[in-house]
Protein backbone atom coordinates (compact mmCIF):
# COMPACT_ATOMS: atom_id res chain seq x y z
CA UNK A 1 0.00 0.00 0.00
CA UNK A 2 3.04 2.30 0.21
CA UNK A 3 3.06 2.82 -3.54
CA UNK A 4 -0.64 3.75 -3.40
CA UNK A 5 -0.05 6.36 -0.69
CA UNK A 6 2.99 7.69 -2.52
CA UNK A 7 0.93 7.98 -5.71
CA UNK A 8 -1.88 9.79 -3.86
CA UNK A 9 0.50 12.20 -2.10
CA UNK A 10 2.03 13.06 -5.47
CA UNK A 11 -1.41 13.70 -7.00
CA UNK A 12 -2.36 15.92 -4.05
CA UNK A 13 0.48 18.25 -4.98
CA UNK A 14 -1.17 19.22 -8.28
CA UNK A 15 -3.98 21.74 -8.68
CA UNK A 16 -6.70 19.21 -9.49
CA UNK A 17 -9.45 18.37 -7.00
CA UNK A 18 -9.66 14.85 -5.62
CA UNK A 19 -11.98 12.76 -3.49
CA UNK A 20 -11.49 9.91 -1.06
CA UNK A 21 -13.86 7.26 0.22
CA UNK A 22 -13.06 4.65 2.82
CA UNK A 23 -15.31 1.64 3.23
CA UNK A 24 -14.72 -0.42 6.36
CA UNK A 25 -16.29 -3.81 6.96
CA UNK A 26 -17.53 -4.14 10.55
CA UNK A 27 -16.65 -7.35 12.43
CA UNK A 28 -15.12 -8.93 9.35
CA UNK A 29 -13.13 -11.29 11.58
CA UNK A 30 -16.45 -12.89 12.58
CA UNK A 31 -16.93 -13.97 8.95
CA UNK A 32 -13.55 -15.70 8.98
CA UNK A 33 -14.14 -17.39 12.33
CA UNK A 34 -17.71 -18.47 11.52
CA UNK A 35 -17.44 -19.48 7.86
CA UNK A 36 -13.69 -19.92 7.35
CA UNK A 37 -10.94 -17.95 5.68
CA UNK A 38 -11.89 -19.20 2.23
CA UNK A 39 -15.34 -17.57 2.53
CA UNK A 40 -13.73 -14.44 4.01
CA UNK A 41 -11.31 -14.17 1.08
CA UNK A 42 -14.11 -14.61 -1.43
CA UNK A 43 -16.16 -11.98 0.39
CA UNK A 44 -13.28 -9.49 0.12
CA UNK A 45 -13.03 -10.22 -3.60
CA UNK A 46 -16.78 -9.73 -4.04
CA UNK A 47 -16.64 -6.44 -2.11
CA UNK A 48 -13.81 -5.33 -4.38
CA UNK A 49 -15.85 -6.28 -7.48
CA UNK A 50 -18.83 -4.30 -6.23
CA UNK A 51 -16.62 -1.29 -5.61
CA UNK A 52 -15.18 -1.57 -9.12
CA UNK A 53 -18.73 -1.71 -10.52
CA UNK A 54 -19.52 1.67 -8.93
CA UNK A 55 -16.34 3.71 -9.34
CA UNK A 56 -14.80 5.22 -12.46
CA UNK A 57 -12.05 3.46 -14.38
CA UNK A 58 -9.67 6.29 -13.34
CA UNK A 59 -10.28 5.73 -9.63
CA UNK A 60 -7.83 3.69 -7.57
CA UNK A 61 -8.46 1.27 -4.71
CA UNK A 62 -6.19 0.12 -1.93
CA UNK A 63 -7.26 -2.60 0.50
CA UNK A 64 -5.90 -2.52 4.03
CA UNK A 65 -7.27 -5.54 5.87
CA UNK A 66 -11.03 -5.08 5.95
CA UNK A 67 -10.84 -1.46 4.76
CA UNK A 68 -10.93 -0.20 1.21
CA UNK A 69 -9.57 3.27 0.43
CA UNK A 70 -10.73 4.73 -2.87
CA UNK A 71 -8.92 7.64 -4.49
CA UNK A 72 -11.02 9.59 -6.97
CA UNK A 73 -8.84 11.92 -9.08
CA UNK A 74 -10.18 14.95 -10.89
CA UNK A 75 -13.55 15.41 -9.21
CA UNK A 76 -15.66 18.40 -10.20
CA UNK A 77 -17.75 18.88 -7.06
CA UNK A 78 -18.21 17.54 -3.54
CA UNK A 79 -21.41 15.94 -4.81
CA UNK A 80 -19.33 13.59 -7.01
CA UNK A 81 -17.87 11.99 -3.88
CA UNK A 82 -21.20 11.91 -2.02
CA UNK A 83 -22.94 10.25 -4.97
CA UNK A 84 -20.32 7.50 -5.26
CA UNK A 85 -20.38 6.93 -1.48
CA UNK A 86 -24.17 6.59 -1.63
CA UNK A 87 -23.98 4.18 -4.56
CA UNK A 88 -21.36 2.10 -2.74
CA UNK A 89 -23.54 1.95 0.35
CA UNK A 90 -26.55 0.78 -1.66
CA UNK A 91 -24.43 -1.85 -3.39
CA UNK A 92 -22.96 -3.19 -0.14
CA UNK A 93 -26.40 -3.58 1.47
CA UNK A 94 -27.27 -6.39 -0.94
CA UNK A 95 -26.62 -9.94 0.25
CA UNK A 96 -23.40 -11.67 -0.73
CA UNK A 97 -23.89 -15.25 -1.89
CA UNK A 98 -20.71 -17.19 -1.21
CA UNK A 99 -20.37 -20.98 -1.15
CA UNK A 100 -24.05 -21.44 -0.37
CA UNK A 101 -24.13 -18.78 2.37
CA UNK A 102 -26.18 -15.61 2.06
CA UNK A 103 -24.11 -13.06 3.95
CA UNK A 104 -25.07 -9.58 5.05
CA UNK A 105 -22.13 -7.31 5.74
CA UNK A 106 -22.16 -4.39 8.14
CA UNK A 107 -20.01 -1.50 6.99
CA UNK A 108 -19.30 2.18 7.42
CA UNK A 109 -18.30 4.68 4.76
CA UNK A 110 -16.36 7.88 5.27
CA UNK A 111 -15.33 10.47 2.73
CA UNK A 112 -13.21 13.55 2.24
CA UNK A 113 -12.24 15.76 -0.66
CA UNK A 114 -9.74 18.47 -1.48
CA UNK A 115 -12.47 21.00 -2.26
CA UNK A 116 -13.86 21.17 1.29
CA UNK A 117 -11.20 19.45 3.41
CA UNK A 118 -7.81 20.68 2.18
CA UNK A 119 -4.89 19.00 0.44
CA UNK A 120 -2.96 17.48 3.35
CA UNK A 121 -3.13 13.68 3.17
CA UNK A 122 -3.04 13.21 6.95
CA UNK A 123 -5.81 15.74 7.50
CA UNK A 124 -7.95 14.11 4.79
CA UNK A 125 -7.50 10.69 6.42
CA UNK A 126 -8.30 12.20 9.83
CA UNK A 127 -11.54 13.64 8.43
CA UNK A 128 -12.47 10.22 7.05
CA UNK A 129 -11.60 8.64 10.39
CA UNK A 130 -13.95 11.05 12.15
CA UNK A 131 -16.75 10.11 9.72
CA UNK A 132 -16.19 6.40 10.35
CA UNK A 133 -16.07 6.88 14.13
CA UNK A 134 -19.37 8.80 14.14
CA UNK A 135 -21.07 6.12 12.04
CA UNK A 136 -19.80 3.33 14.30
CA UNK A 137 -20.96 5.24 17.38
CA UNK A 138 -24.35 5.75 15.76
CA UNK A 139 -24.54 2.02 14.93
CA UNK A 140 -23.84 1.07 18.55
CA UNK A 141 -26.46 3.52 19.80
CA UNK A 142 -28.99 2.25 17.25
CA UNK A 143 -28.19 -1.35 18.20
CA UNK A 144 -28.76 -0.61 21.89
CA UNK A 145 -32.14 0.96 21.12
CA UNK A 146 -33.16 -2.07 19.03
CA UNK A 147 -32.06 -4.46 21.79
CA UNK A 148 -34.02 -2.44 24.37
CA UNK A 149 -37.12 -2.40 22.15
CA UNK A 150 -36.88 -6.19 21.69
CA UNK A 151 -36.64 -6.75 25.45
CA UNK A 152 -39.61 -4.44 26.10
CA UNK A 153 -41.71 -6.25 23.48
CA UNK A 154 -41.14 -9.66 25.10
Instruction: Please indicate the percent range of residues in DSSP E strands (runs of 2 or more).
Output: 15-25%
Name the helicity range.
Answer: 55-70%
**Strand line-up across the major sheet:** 2-3-1-6
**H/E element sequence:** HEHHEEHEEEHH
The biggest beta sheet reads: 4 strands, antiparallel
End-to-end Cα distance:
49 Å
Structural class by sheet pairing and helices: alpha+beta
Oligomer: single chain
Provide the residue-averaged pLDDT: 89
What overall form do the CA principal axes indicate? globular
Number of strands: 6
Characterize the structure shown.
There is one protein chain. By secondary structure, the chain is an alpha+beta fold. It has six helices and six strands; from the N terminus they run αβααββαβββαα. It has helices at 2-12, 28-35, 37-54, 78-92, 114-117, 121-153; strands at 19-26, 60-64, 67-72, 96-98, 101-103, 106-113. It has a four-stranded antiparallel sheet with strand order 2-3-1-6, sandwiched between helices. A hairpin with a 2-residue loop joins strand 4 and strand 5. Helix 2 (28-35) packs across helix 3 (37-54) and helix 3 runs antiparallel to helix 4 (78-92).
Amino acid sequence: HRSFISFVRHRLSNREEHGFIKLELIHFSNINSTYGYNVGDKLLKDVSRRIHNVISYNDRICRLGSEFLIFMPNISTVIDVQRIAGDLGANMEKHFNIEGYSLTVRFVIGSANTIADGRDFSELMHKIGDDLFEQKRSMRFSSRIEDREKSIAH
